Sequence to fold (352 residues):
Amino acid sequence: MEAGIVSRSFENMADYILGIESSCDDTSAAVLKDGLLLSNVIASQQVHKDFGGVVPELASRAHELNIVPVVSQAVAKAGIKPSDLSAIAFTRGPGLLGSLLVGTSFAKALSLSLEIPMVMVNHLQGHVLASFIQEEGKEYNPPSFPYLCLLVSGGNSQIVRVDSPLDFEILGQTIDDAVGEAFDKCSKMMGLGYPGGPVIDRLAKLGDPDRFKFAKPRVPGLDYSFSGVKTSLLYFVRDELKKDPEFMEKNKEDICASFQKTLIEILMDKLVKAARQTGIREITIGGGVSANSGLREAVLAEGRKRGWKVHLPEFRFTTDNAAMIAMAGLFRLRSGERAPLDIAPVSRIADF
Fold:
């Protein structure tokens, strides 16, 4: 079969699209029927907690073990047979190359065996389009174009303008570390474990966000920087521990609350500026850090203040998941895009 050519006819039939996500340490598969979510299965890897971060080789080996049962479970939960599928969407990148290779290779094999097309998806675009996932029995209120998405995760901090499901423009991005890295490194420095974001968010709810002050970067335009904030925290804790060895344990809730508030203020300052410059009032957030309760509250508060229409993703669609990959893939499938069988995964993607 020639790459990109399908021998089966799906005219006048529903689009059942299988999404496969394997960019980092979660193996996920999901099935959509014309944009309606039928299943979304995620197998997480706990082994990385012992190392304080994701170990690429361990991640790829776990994907090899998980990919078949996860896809099988997703198809079964959707109430369909593999032969009912009309296409496969898979994450091509960015991500860990070994992990991406597992998902890409499986998608190719399934595409050949079922004689159905593949569609490649940029993982980041999946996060940006997560608000379009429809669920049975839930109100469907996706953003209108154009909209701004604050994309925040362990590897990315970006403000993205979205003019259509296929038209994206990065207005600003981090020039060093991502905000998710700042959360993780703060947690590691304080001995709170990995991943750091959820732990800091939980402790921050118990602390005083105005107790301590940390340095904020001065970066022109809409770009971000978080390395200086981490350094400020490091020096602050180091100096205080010299005075009182139990300082961190006595004040960890206030430290987390103050640090989190600083990060959120940095994020919101540029998002407000982007909305003002573009005149866009449709606002979404995406990525793992979009699950942070403080950030969600801040976006909603700014929305009420400035007349934004804010769209917050469901918590289960903030982390890496195949539902968002299937959704982005469906847009690309219907635009006529197809991925050739010789396509290779990439750890970095230059164009958003």
Summary: The first strand starts at residue 16 and ends at 21. Confidence is low (pLDDT under 50) at residues 1-12. Residues 143 and 282 are 6 Å apart (CA to CA). The chain has two domains: 16-135+318-334, 147-313.
